[in-house]
Amino acid sequence: MMLLGAAAVCALAGPAHALDADLSRLSLEELADVEITSVSRRPQPVGEAAAAIYVISADDIRRSGVTSLPEVLRLAPNLQVQRVNAADYAISARGFNGFETSNKLQVLVNGRSIYSTLQAGVFWDVRTPMLEDIERIEVISGPGGTLYGANSVNGVINIIMRSSADTQGTLVSAGAGNEDRTLAIRHGSRLGDTATWRVYASAFDRDDSFRESGDDATDSTSGVRGGARGDWMLGANTLAVTTEIFRNQMRTNEDFTGQKTHADGGHVVGLWTHAFERAGELQVQAYYDKIELVEPLLTELNDTYDLHVQHAFTWGRHHVVWGGGYRNVATELRTLLPSGLDPAERTVSLGNVFVQDQIDLAATLRLTIGLKYENNSFTGEELLPNVRLAWSRADGSLFWGAVSRASRTPNRIERDLTLPGFLEGGDFQSEVLTAYEIGYRANPSPNTAISISGFYNEYDELRTVQVTPVTFLPISFANDGRGTTHGIEAWGSWDVAPTWRLSAGVATLEKDFELEPGTSDLSDLASVGDDPSYQVLLRSQAELTDSLELDVRLRAVDELDRSGVESYVEADARLGWQVTEQVELAVTGQNLLDEHRLETADPARRRAFGRSVFANLRWSF
User: Three-state SS string across 240-274, please?
Assistant: First the structure.
């Protein structure tokens, strides 16, 4: 986002091609210099970031051949992605995965949080932006509480959309296969010498997944969305305004009856940036987000208002970013079920101030110290500190270490869910993490790049389900779980030839959880999720000729011990043909090795997924 002004300058200087050149064309050394913003909320090269960060470029997305944001996120070796049914996914970093438990990952789209206050997760089926408009996705595994606040516990996903200056002309993308049909249309143009704009519309239709028996699971989904963006540049000021509306229809009920549900919503976001001549850069962002989820017997409504201000500047050896924000979420759950939220309507607020200082202790040594103070409606005050140390060597390699504290604040279900006589809203408090991390990043040679990080996480106050002494009922949520996790995340790339790149990634996870002495948990610590002990990703990107691309991806995922979901190895492949400078044809095959395969441990959503073939045409003019 801080790159908005610079991007606008470059794009306004000349027309942008709709099928843009992409980061995969850069050498691995050049990729280390690509600027990101998520680690320190200010531009810095990937090679200098003291965090476990993986960047998915626009070209990675194009060459993946996939049709949804969760499938794109499978490219990140530091994420674990479980597909739950035709519409839903569970996505986590460093554990706690599962449809009901993947609640420790903050997800932002151009600075707008899409984290749900109802169940502390992300409704991935209704939150997919137009993939062709994504500039890059920055995936941080590890705490981000100091900069991104509560719920940035195990990771942060920051989805950065392209400026309208980078999407000039018209783009049509259409695809069809045995599982998916998609259509996207975008047009961008200029308003004088200082402004650009784009409008777009997209639609998708996705078939049913499978029951374990092989029959259709009656959970097909479809959706339409449309939006617009305008970017203005006036001297030292830039302004970006984005708006979008959507409507999705799903059949996600667990009883296979195929009843339709739907989700409607939209948002408007404004970001103003002012570059001071000597005092750095000021950003002010405000947004309004509305979503309505309608399922059989219940309706959820959310209206979110958010204001964020930050100022970044350099003073001698100090690179400071500071600011604050306020979020107000008006929520309502209407239901005909005997259980519901009490009160049915509640306004949840979250205010914060933060400061982070990156200090140049020496030419090769940087110390980062940061602190965020938050105040939320449920638990009041939260302090989220962060300390990082980075050592840059003469050969360009980087060693780093960090100690951080993060917390996940209660959601409405944990505080307000009530079934008279059986379940009552309790005094559930924030879950807390203290994380210790070390890492190494380097380009050992011009054609190789590696990143290795290790972590040790200590969790406290984890969610449990307690009974009432003597009477047993009612039950309520409590904070009697604790434990540790540790693991290694590593990835690297090798340019075998100028036209062939091999990439690999691995993530391991070991968990040890227990209850506080003298307590019990009716859920058997279900809140810790069900995670594989390892995941391995392999990818080959080859340019067979000047106009022909071949991409092959393999992933191996270990079994889920708690639920008995078996380990699996899966393969995807894409063949792309650049017919002309304006036209591209591609055929993608997914899940090529298994006829039917389970990914989720959720007993109510054990859907299987089979092979699919998808053909896509992209035409720009």
Answer: EEEEEEEEEEECCCCCCCCCCEEEEEEEEEEEEEE
Closest to 556 (Cα-Cα) out of 589, 529, 594: 594
Residues of the chain with pLDDT under 70: 1-25, 252-258
Strands (DSSP E) found in 498-611: 500-508, 510-515, 534-543, 548-557, 568-578, 583-590, 597-598, 608-609
pLDDT tens, 518-571?
999 999 999 999 999 999 999 999 999 999 999 999 999 999 978 788 999 999
Q: pLDDT, tens digit, for every residue of 74-115? A: 999 999 999 998 888 999 999 999 988 999 999 999 889 998
**Span between the terminal Cα atoms of the chain, in Å:** 27
Closest-CA residue to 360 (of 318, 419, 396, 404): 318
Q: What is the pLDDT of residue 2?
A: 34
Decide: residue 62, CB within 10 A, 0-12 exposed, 13-18 middle, 19+ buried. Answer: buried
Q: Give the DSSP letter of residue 162.
A: P
Cβ-contact 569, 169 below 8 angstroms: no
Cα(137)–Cα(157) distance, integer angstroms:
7
Give me the sheet containing 112-113, strands edge to edge. 52-57, 134-141, 155-161, 105-109, 112-113
Please give the full DSSP string across 505-531, using - where no structure is assigned: EEEE-EEEEEEPTT---TTSSGGG---
- H/E element holding 309? strand 298-315
Q: What is the DSSP string of 69-104?
A: HHHHHTT-TT-EEEE-SSS-EEEESSS--STTT--S
Buried b (16+ CB within 10 A) or exposed e, 362-394: eeeebbbebbbebebbbbeebebbbebbbebee
Q: What is the pLDDT of residue 297?
A: 83
| C-beta atoms surrounding 398 within 10 Å | 22
Token pair of 181 as six digits: 């049909």
Nearest to 320, CA basis, from 306, 310, 333: 310
DSSP state of 591: S
Give the Cβ contact number of residue 473 at 10 Å: 12
How many C-beta neighbours within 10 Å does residue 22 have? 15
Report yes or no: 260 and 250 within 8 Å, Cβ to Cβ: yes
| Domain hosting residue 11, numbered range | 4-620
d(CA 198, CA 241): 11
Q: What is the pLDDT of residue 564?
A: 80
* Residues facing residue 108 across a β-bridge: 113, 158
Distance, in Å, from the CA atom of 76 to the CA atom of 94, rounded to the nearest integer, reads 13
Q: pLDDT value at position 116?
A: 86
Asked if residues 15 and 169 have their Cβ atoms less than 8 Å apart, the reply is yes
238, 12 contact by CB (below 8 A): no
> How many Å apart are CA 378 and CA 369, to the nearest integer?
27
The answer to whether 188 touches 172, Cβ cutoff 8 Å, is no
CATH number at residue 355: 2.40.170.20
Instruction: State how many domains the chain has.
Output: 1
